[in-house]
């Protein structure tokens, strides 16, 4: 995963899926990386994209996705 960078982190799976689906619609080919400990439910989910798409992905997330 050397050529992949994290563009979003959350502890909520539904938020990771929403961000992943949105970036998929924009053809950025994101991947959800599960970094939660299954025994204790500690950790988070990361959305990663290739280094070529990092700036565009961050801009899209900041401009178009809001969670309260």
Automatic annotation (TrEMBL):
Protein name, per record:
DUF2007 domain-containing protein
| Organism encoding this protein | Marivirga arenosa
